Amino acid sequence: MDYYSRYQIERRIFQELLDLKRLQIRAGRANEHVLVKRMADEYSKSIASMVGLRKHDGPYTFKDFEKYLYGKTKKHQLMFFRLLTIYGGRLAQNSRLQTTSNIVWH
Question: Which residue from 24, 69, 93, 103 has the fewest beta carbons nearer than 10 Å?
Answer without folding.
Answer: 93
